[in-house]
Amino acid sequence: MKELIKRYYIYVTIFVILILGIIFIPVGGEEKQKIEFEPTNNNVQPEDIPEYMYIDIKGHVKNPGVYKVLVNYRLFQLLKLAGGTTSKADTLAINLSLKLHDQQVVYIPSYEDNYPIISEVVDDPSQGVININSASLQLLDTLPGIGPSTAQSIIDYRTEVGFFESVEDIMNVTGIGESTYNEIKDLITV
Q1: CB pairs under 8 A, 24+ apart, for 66-70?
Q2: Among residues 22, 87, 154, 166, which is most buried (max CB within 10 A)?
Q3: How many domains would you assign to the chain?
Q4: 28 located within any domain
């Protein structure tokens, strides 16, 4: 019986040594392998990288503050990020499809506020300064040298190209030359 135990003991010991040898002996001898990571896609174009902007939302929203959002965000998407409106918010007074731009401040009014339309909050025609990035067709039409068709061209430009970065950019709109620009430059803002 002792001989039988010795025989199996030797087989078990050899088996354990083989398993340990397989586990701890590196494949390929002493040479260490160097692992290099390369990007999977070398064809990343600048237009593939998302662009962000910062919007400040105030008023009757559940979580007011500054939000980092993708370019081309709309007001309804920003409201969703901010947790929605409070029960006192007057959602009929705001344009939920409003296209946002960087550094914009959005105020969500309550039923008690006197802000009938969000573009009127941004524009102050009583002071003679009109925001060309948010003004309505009727408000743009009040500018000297700007008629209804040119006002529509300004709105079309905003929709197709994007917001004006500076007041001088209004000369990129068809129908507005240097002479018209000189008449309105002190009456507009971005």
Answers
A1: 69/100
A2: 154
A3: 2
A4: no
